[in-house]
Amino acid sequence: xxxxxxxxxxxxxxxxxxxxxxxxxxxxxxxxxxxxxxxxxxxxxxxxxxxxxxxxxxxxxxxxxxxxxxxxxxxxxxxxxxxxxxxxxxxxxxxxxxxxxxxxxxxxxxxxxxxxxxxxxxxxxxxxxxxxxxxxxxxxxxxxxxxxxxxxxxxxxxxxxxxxxxxxxxxxxxxxxxxxxxxxxxxxxxxxxxxxxxxxxxxxxxxxxxxxxxxxxxxxxxxxxxxxxxxxxxxxxxxxxxxxxxx
Amino acid sequence: xxxxxxxxxxxxxxxxxxxxxxxxxxxxxxxxxxxxxxxxxxxxxxxxxxxxxxxxxxxxxxxxxxxxxxxxxxxxxxxxxxxxxxxxxxxxxxxxxxxxxxxxxxxxxxxxxxxxxxxxxxxxxxxxxxxxxxxxxxxxxxxxxxxxxxxxxxxxxxxxxxxxxxxxxxxxxxxxxxxxxxxxxxxxxxxxxxxxxxxxxxxxxxxxxxxxxxxxxxxxxxxxxxxxxxxxxxxxxxxxxxxxxxxxxxxxxxxxxxxxxxxxxxxxxxxxxxxxxxxxxxxxxxxxxxxxxxxxxxxxxxxxxxxxxxxxxxxxxxxxxxxxxxxxxxxxxxxxxxxxxxxxxxxxxxxxxxxxxxxxxxxxxxxxxxxxxxxxxxxxxxxxxxxxxxxxxxxxxxxxxxxxxxxxxxxxxxxxxxxxxxxxxxxxxxxxxxxxxxxxxxxxxxxxxxxxxxxxxxxxxxxxxxxxxxxxxxxxxxxxxxxxxxxxxxxxxxxxxxxxxxxxxxxxxxxxxxxxxxxxxxxxxxxxxxxxxxxxxxxxxxxxxxxxxxxxxxxxxxxxxxxxxxxxxxxxxxxxxxxxxxxxxxxxxxxxxxxxxxxxxxxxxxxxxxxxxxxxxxxxxxxxxxxxxxxxxxxxxxxxxxxxxxxxxxxxxxxxxxxxxxxxxxxxxxxxxxxxxxxxxxxxxxxxxxxxxxxxxxxxxxxxxxxxxxxxxxxxxxxxxxxxxxxxxxxxxxxxxxxxxxxxxxxxxxxxxxxxxxxxxxxxxxxxxxxxxxxxxxxxxxxxxxxxxxxxxxxxxxxxxxxxxxxxxxxxxxxxxxxxxxxxxxxxxxxxxxxxxxxxxxxxxxxxxxxxxxxxxxxxxxxxxxxxxxxxxxxxxxxxxxxxxxxxxxxxxxxxxxxxxxxxxxxxxxxxxxxxxxxxxxxxxxxxxxxxxxxxxxx
Lengths: 247, 939
Description:
The complex is a heterodimer.
Chain A: H1 26-52, H2 54-76, H3 93-104, H4 107-136, H5 145-167, H6 171-178, H7 186-200, H8 218-236
Chain B: H1 2-26, H2 45-48, E1 60-66, H3 71-75, H4 82-90, E2 93-99, H5 106-115, H6 122-128, H7 143-149, E3 155-160, H8 162-166, E4 173-177, H9 187-193, H10 196-201, E5 207-212, H11 214-222, H12 229-249, E6 256-261, H13 277-280, E7 283-287, H14 292-295, E8 316-319, H15 323-331, H16 354-375, H17 398-414, H18 421-440, H19 448-474, H20 478-493, H21 497-501, H22 503-525, H23 535-549, H24 573-603, H25 613-641, H26 651-658, H27 662-698, H28 710-724, H29 732-747, H30 751-768, H31 792-803, H32 805-819, H33 823-829, H34 841-854, H35 856-867, H36 869-896, H37 903-937
Parallel strand pairs in B: 1-5, 1-6, 2-8, 3-4, 3-5
Antiparallel strand pairs in B: 2-7, 6-7
Helix pairs in contact in B: 1-19, 1-36, 1-37, 16-18, 17-18, 19-36, 20-22, 20-36, 22-23, 22-30, 23-29, 23-30, 24-25, 24-27, 24-28, 25-27, 27-28, 28-32, 28-37, 29-32, 30-32, 30-36, 32-37, 33-34, 36-37
Protein name (chain B): GPI ethanolamine phosphate transferas-like protein 2
Organism (chain B): Lindgomyces ingoldianus
């Protein structure tokens, strides 16, 4: 609109994206269903200690969560640039190169390394951004820094790690993700579900029930985990391939 | 088109109707019995050989009220009132905790203490509408009226002028003080105390009332733990000693009863209005050396520890309404007619003869029975002995239970004269206490059919509004979904007491999500390279500051917030005042531009609409006095109202402003605003006429420079008025609001999104300014700006404006956004970096001129949509649907939860707020003022 605002090209020019399919082998098909159960069990198992003392418990839970998420993406999802993902067909050759030697080595390495890179990116880049978002949404700014940071880390591992694994760190692609322009699939569903869940998680905080679990950030993290599972299920099944429409 | 407007008008008309019908059912108007009570025939006179009333024990009364005197301030171990405590130990004083019912604010409490009735919630409204004759007690039966009616009855009164309003013409001598400045801890009290020595020497009165406000002021300002609290208690204790010594030593005062009491208590934040243990537990002490007769066997330990919830219960707990019948007995006058209190048992032992005790109580019981009879006309309350074995067995309604207990009184009065008097006394108490319980419980007072009728009418209004919106809603849009989600969730939350108390969280939470949503939708259209400075993200950022400005709600009351942070207080108050100054400056500069435009009008052709430097200078010159006066008023007012906020200001400036007459300066500001409005209005109207004439000549509209300039001018003048009505520490919020408005302008929202933004920001700003859904948070400090006397409508208007200032601001800002009036300026500013908003305005104006050219098309479009009433109607329909939806939800919640524990503390205040939102805000501001602004925008 305004001449000085350098708007990027409208995304319509590019061919429409197709939803991410998980890998077609049997392990992938099986594990994609087991994964949410494992995630929820992990959280349920840790819930008591998170309520009792959020900071160490959330920190400790991050490790198994990271392992579970890495396993999930490595077993079930096509890494960025792989042939299995039709979405990546039109990648620039420069980016493809990153994966090409991986294919030469064993298939396992080709997945594990991107998975670890995703872990790194989601903890180092996405977590601070998410923490900022949490603060913008009303997280305490003068106190509870560790709580908020760990909360952001959990959301980040749940929501962004799989996305980074399948979409990489391409700015253009992430703009589409933020603008809700990608078709819904399992991985995208995880992000939407986690974020919505974390947002809805704030609802019980003002209640006068005086329960321990009402304290920051237990409800937010709980909402994020539940939202992750719901989003993953919905994105992988009946919402799959749907395009979000605004207005 | 016309039909829809008609439907919408009808729906809006139904809002006040529904609220009124519901209110009459929810706060039933209790009929009171007029006239003064007299000693009436009791029955059983011959049997007990009653020829005269029991001998009164006292002939004079000193009634000393210390506002917000909580029980522990007198009886607790940390109390400063050592003299009173020594009297308790000595047996010359009988202490009680007098339970005050909600609402714990002064006027209803004074009503309860003087009439013995239990004032309904309606009195809260009447508290602000005191000219209503039903709220004065001039025609009601009170112990004041009874004492005045006595032979030689003369009353004197010093202190809170609430008494003067409640009892006009009652007092022989009086000096009222108004609690105008809460920061005044000493003068309000010395104004009372200076009359005391002189009055103690006068023998012409039989009741002296003193009402001290200082302690309440300390509470409001700094809470019960304030370092000023103990010295104030010591001061009050000294006055008690002074009066008590006079009673001991002066012959004409020898038969004087001295009562010290609080009208209500305070919570840990120092506020009152609700029903926390601290708020409902004021102290009550009866003092006289004659009391030693009855205190011999009483527990006279003092100080003691409090019992009960919050540790606020000391000694025996009585009802505040018990004061009236007790005074009646002790001073020998008939119990006031509408009394629901019970004579306090300890004082019965003043009378040695058992039949005197029975007579005293029976008078109390007869009077209460009369009210009970009027409430349950179908039940039998006569004095004949009946067989009640069968009647009174099994489950009884509360009315039947009372009838049975009364029958018990009748039977025991009829039995042989030789039984122990105590048995009769106990039976009468058995009836009286039950009657007090039943009559003060509110559940029986609802008119459920009216509640349902009121809710149905508001539902009908909802349906009508919905019908007018159908064409819009039939196209499902994500904004529409967000709107419906907000409305539905809000309606559901109204049923949960915690969410009513913490309503601000809902709005903060929803508004954050809405701004993120705006970011996402904008990102779909185009990507903003520095996305952290995207207008929607900036909105979110500003929103985060705004919500932290004031900590509100109940759960985290007293938690740290920006207003109470050291950044703005104490020696840093210069920071606060710089921000306030910037807010005033911003508005003044905007106004100067409006005025400059009106001056340029005369000599340059209107089509250019440009203002030269000379004109700008003239404009600034014209509005600068107004801006400076308004700022000076705020400084002078704050120096008196909240001195802690002006600590960093140099003494010279303060010395100057402290000499200003606040009423005069406030009037100057208001008149200045009105004059500017009419000046700009007239000249804009002439310009629009001129444009139209030109338009006819050339066959096209003269677009540039004109068209709707008056709307933003009105908005800026309104902002100046609103900040005049806002507490100083909240004024910087308007700077943040202005920035939000700027970023919203950049977003260029479609109509429905504008409506939703308006709703969200009106609600958010209401709570951000420190309001809650509780009565105690109503800010009265700005209600007398420019008013010297008590003028009900003016005060009411100013109270509303000062509490709804934020919502009014956003309601009108919403109209500007809707009409795109701010658009030209805003788009011009788009070239500036977001960080440069506060930059010098010169470049801004140049840019504005350059862009005006390019914006002609857009303006034409905006203008067309403005002239089309459809947009405004849709906007009003959107706002109405939300307002009515909220009213429906609150009414349904109040109806469904009418026996809920929190009905009087949470849901009723919410209904009062919903009334204000629905009638004063929605109809008065959104539709009324909004309509005017929209209309002048179409000139």
